[in-house]
Amino acid sequence: GAVVSQHPSRVICKSGTSVKIECRSLDFQATTMFWYRQFPKKSLMLMATSNEGSKATYEQGVEKDKFLINHASLTLSTLTVTSAHPEDSSFYICSARDEAGLNTQYFGPGTRLTVL
Amino acid sequence: KQEVTQIPAALSVPEGENLVLNCSFTDSAIYNLQWFRQDPGKGLTSLLLIQSSQREQTSGRLNASLDKSSGRSTLYIAASQPGDSATYLCAVSFTGTYKYIFGTGTRLKVLA
Predict the structure, then answer these.
(1) What is the pLDDT of residues A12-47, one digit of tens each?
(2) How far is Cα B16 from Cα B14, in angstroms, rounded to an integer?
(3) A108 and B43: CB-CB below 8 Å?
(4) Which residue does chain A place closest to B96, by CA atoms?
(5) Strand pairing category for B106-111 and B10-14
C-alpha cells in the first residue's frame, strides 16, 4: 500500500526556536496534504490543508503565521512551528491524498514535538 | 458545522466478548468513512475504509457498517482479545473537501 513518511519522528527543542516537520508521499503524487494535531488523550484536529503550488488553507483558530506550511512539490509538504512554546508541544500527523487511487488518504506515522 | 462523535468514550470488557463501537456524524454528504486504531503514543493504523456507496466492510474479526441517512457507523469487534486494547477513532471525509473530521474516540480495554 501507499506510504507516507514523516521526519523527524520525535523532536525536543527549546522555547523560542523553530521546528520543521516534513511529510512525504513515497510512492504517489499528492497535490493535497493535510496536517493534524493531537493533544494528549484527545482526538485529532485538522489544522490546515496543504495545496501544492499554492497557499495552505487553515482551519478556524489556527494561526497561519505560527504554523507555516509549504507544499513545494507533489511529494513533500512541510510544517514549520515558528517560535515554539511549551503549549505547542503535541503530536503532529500528516496525511496525503492519492488522487489517482480513489482519493484515498494515507496517514504518516506522526511527529512528537516537545518544547521545553 | 460538521461534527463526528463516538460513544462510548471508554469501554472495558472481558476477553471473548463481542462489542460494538458507535460513530455518528452530522452531515450525510460524506465521501468515505474510515476506522482507525491508535495505540498509546503511536500513530494511526487504518482498520477499515467504507466508501459512501458501500454499506459495510469486513476484515477478519472486524466489521464496519455505514448508514448515511441516519448519520451513523458502527464497528463490530468479534471475540475480543487483550491485544485489541487501544483507542478507536472514526474519521469522516465530507464531500467536496476530502479532509477528515475525526471523532472523539473510544478507549477500549479488553481484560484477560
Answers:
(1) 999 999 999 999 999 899 999 999 999 888 889 999
(2) 6
(3) yes
(4) A103
(5) parallel
